[in-house]
């Protein structure tokens, strides 16, 4: 599978708390033509989350039914819950006129699966400036129990170990500069030769003096 022309498939991963949700929100504000890929999950919704907007919240039995039906492009177990990206989610976005691509907020296991199936996906990993700052942000979010914070922090190191799966590493020390990095990558990826080749070819076909 390939992401066809200028339809960008952007994977954004990070250890929990590094700023992926914040940066994704900024990217969607700046580029409203991009769509957020709403994953399925068996995790319980947080107070601020809305079913169908942040996630499709389903129970484990339903999730496993979808796995068996081949509904997911990728899925993985993360922090004791199941998460997956449905093929239908991408097909729906492709069918929307003017849609410039999709953003996938998924973990490294999902990133690995998508990269092995889709030729020109752009995979970015967000790094915190330090482990101390990561812990501070996890606690500051206050949407998790102490136990969940501890668990997420403990696995963060293990997630960072997989940095080599990604094309770009973004450091989220200062939010403005991290967003600048992210935006620059999107701009550069859109201008890649293979994405612009159809335009060049079209110009050649009609490029006769009239
Ligand atoms: P993730 O989606 O990766 O788990 P979030 O985007 O929820 O992370 O960010 C975790 C916390 O850190 C949030 O409270 C967010 O406001 C804060 N945060 C994100 N980026 C920065 C930054 N550059 N500097 C300070 N705090 C940040
Ligand atoms: P959270 O529970 O904080 O929303 O997400 C926990 C982790 O699950 C994050 O690392 C997030 O990127 C990952 N995640 C969310 N949706 C998916 C998905 O569809 N597939 C995979 N593989 N990971 C996901």
Task: Describe how the helices and strands are arranged.
Layout: E1 8-13, H1 20-30, E2 34-36, E3 39-41, E4 55-57, H2 60-68, E5 72-78, E6 81-86, H3 87-94, E7 101-105, H4 108-117, E8 122-127, H5 131-141, H6 146-160, E9 168-171, H7 175-190, H8 193-206
Parallel strand pairs: 1-7, 1-8, 2-7, 3-4, 8-9
Antiparallel strand pairs: 3-6, 5-6
Adenosine-5'-diphosphate (ADP) binds next to helix 1, helix 5 and helix 7.
Structure description:
The chain is an alpha/beta fold. It has a domain at 8-37 and 101-209: P-loop containing nucleotide triphosphate hydrolases (Rossmann fold, 3-Layer(aba) Sandwich), CATH 3.40.50.300. 45% of the residues lie in helices and 20% in strands. It contains 8 helices and 9 strands. The strands form 2 sheets. Strands 2-7-1-8-9 form a 5-stranded parallel sheet, sandwiched between helices. Helix 5 (131-141) runs antiparallel to helix 6. The N and C termini lie far apart (39 Å). The model has no long low-confidence stretch (mean pLDDT 91). Guanosine-5'-monophosphate is lined by residues 13, 16, 39, 43, 74, 76, 78-79, 83-85, 105-107, 109-110. Adenosine-5'-diphosphate binds at residues 14, 16-22, 137, 140-141, 172, 174-175, 178.
